[in-house]
Amino acid sequence: MATVVRARPLVAQAQSTALNIIDTDVHERAEMHALLPYLAPEWRKYITDFGWQPERLLPFAQFATGGLDRQDAKLPDGRPGGSDLSLLRSQLLDEYDIDYAVLTGWLDASALHPGWSEFKTALMSAYNDWQLETWVEREPRLLGSVHVNAHDPVGAAREIDRIGSHPKMMQVVLYFGDKAFGDPYYHPIFEAAVRNNLPVGMHHSENSPTALGFHRYFIEWHTLVPQVFMSEMVSLIFNGVFDKYPELKVIMIEGGTTYVPHLMSRADQQYKELRSEVPWVKRMPSDIIREHFRFATQPTEEMSAKQFLAMIDAVGSEDLFCFSTDYPHWDFDSPVEALPAGLPESLQRKIFYQNAQNLYPKMPALKPR
Question: Which residue ranges does the record assign to the Amidohydrolase-related domain (predicted)?
């Protein structure tokens, strides 16, 4: 939901519960020229000489004063939100006393066309080095993600092995395009993630279509974003990814939460009727979801505590949801306002930090409040 960022008194009110906060979705942004020092000379020419830019399929303007981002997150020189560390510190980490924030990036080759694959694999390696040097190593509260080119699974696995052992790299990130990642073609990525004890974060992108492609208006596409999350989950479950890699954990980022009960119910019913088609799947899909999936909360939908608790009851677990703000995007969710008032403090603790602590094996220890 779009959230008005309120002033300090409400932040103090939120802090009165002494809750730690782990934010599982924060977007840093790199301009193409910033990646050049991290690219080998043979790849730099794609940007410097050929003018390569990421392919964007979304045919809409985004109807907010800051476009993709909060208006106040844009830089005076015109750079978009997520481009400046000091502003991110001020508007997010300090403003809301965030303990740790997991960076999820903006540029990810997995959502792009498979063409020029070797270049895009090298680009993701450069991005990872830039992310560490520019953000993660300069701010102790920021944690990184390994970005890879999923269309080159062998190269992606090599990149995970190269940098995944860094103590502040929390996960592998795959942005969705129009490919179903449960396909065995992509399995080397999951194998490498498990080998490096990293969960996989999956995030939608401007290149994620609805079931009917791209509609006439942004509001149509944005309403239907959960469709691509459901599509990827179904692909992973029924292609047996979790049967093949039982240690794998996946967090679905920036798709919200309310679609999860429906998907559990629908997938369970289909499994009862059609499981002979997928004999390698040995458990009910809802059980697989509860064990292997987590869900970042943003964008949260407005609901009462009673409605929220009914959703928790429907999914059968308090362990599935991890708090996220989606900073600096226009529909940023403030930790002051994202969850309905009146939730049990034990559940708030799980959502705000304990579930993320349990998901990320390398999450640093929190200082008790």
Answer: 118-361
